[in-house]
Amino acid sequence: MVKISLKLACACVFGMSTLAQADTRSIQSASPSAVGTPAIVTAGMFRLESERSYKLSLQMALGILNAHTQIERTRSVEKIAKLRAELAKTSQKSEKIAKVFHRVNLALNDQVDGLPKLNEKTAAMMYDINEDLLNKMNFLSFAIESETSDTSSRITGLALRQASLAQRMAKIILLRSMDKNMAQKQGLQVDLEQSRIEFLNGLNLLAAETQSGKALRERFVLAQQQWVFYDRSLSARQFKSEDLRNISSTSDRIAEMMVEIVRLAYGLVADPNMIASN
After folding, report:
1. Cβ contacts of residue 24 below 8 Å, gap of 6+?
2. Residue 3, burial from CB neighbour count under 10 angstroms (0-12, 13-18, 19+)
């Protein structure tokens, strides 16, 4: 399972294999700059963890990976609190970012309060809360990116948005599997297809952005391979327990790849295990 974190620099991610087996590998983080983590990275990880915490809550309710999922959700919630504190400091430097961050904060409070009580009856309501939070977090990322002179901001924004989209598609499938009343909801199908199109468009853009180095290209190719498996799983007509485990784990595996791309964009040393394990 993945453990996604951000300490001083880009991130640490612990992933699940596509076979939904526990993966204890880790990506060690290192600072890309003397001043600490770029705000655009923090915002992107903040959005990713907000999506992931809801997805993990659905996994818990469905009994997917049980105790392990509970541990991961606890870690995710803890990371959100740390990232929120870091972004609070960043927002003080810009009136524009402060206004957007205030709206994010209010929406995040609703999610943090509701997730511990998530069940079949509240899952759909929490989806709406999570989607509202996602939209506000997108605006926060865009606001930070518009004010940054970070030369790696484009690839960072793209890669972390891809990681978030992978989580979004998984949460939609899990919600539809948990709440049978949502299974035929046209709105959810539209959200899923929209996310798929955005993810494919993002892959095309990342293909061009990752041509500057061998390690970047290799990680991008691995992400593409994971997407082929993921897309096939998402397209199933009916979802068995194994399918749901694979979707849950592959969404995290893609996130792992995307965070690695961000690390490499900041000139950090590539993790050789990312190649060896595939």
Report:
1. 14
2. buried
5 bridge partner residues: 12
pLDDT of residue 269: 67
pLDDT of residue 271: 64
pTM for this entry: 0.85
pLDDT per position as a tens digit, 75-126: 999 999 999 999 999 999 999 999 999 999 999 999 999 999 999 999 999 9
User: What residues pair up with 12 in beta bridges, in sequence order?
Assistant: 5
Can you list the pairs that 60-69 forms with residues at least 24 positions away whose Cβ atoms lie under 8 Å?
A: 60/118, 61/118, 61/119, 61/120, 61/123, 61/178, 62/174, 62/177, 62/178, 62/244, 64/174, 64/241, 64/244, 64/245, 64/248, 65/1, 65/16, 65/20, 65/245, 65/248, 68/1, 68/22, 69/1
Tokens 């518009």, residue located: 146
- Which carries the bigger pLDDT value, residue 277 or residue 229? 229
**Residue 48 dihedral angles phi and psi, to the nearest 5°:** -60, -45
Distance, CA of 135 to CA of 132 (rounded, Å): 5
Residue 77 near residue 192 (C-beta atoms within 8 A): no
Q: Give CA–CA dist 145/134, Å, rounded.
A: 16
**For 10-49, what is each residue's pLDDT tens digit?**
433 333 333 333 332 332 333 344 346 889 999 999 999 9
Residue indicated by tokens 């205030």: 102
- In whole angstroms, what is the distance from residue 166 CA to residue 179 CA? 20
pLDDT of residue 113: 94
CB atoms within 10 A of CB 163: 33
Residue appearing with tokens 């799983």: 233
Helix (H) or strand (E) holding 269: none
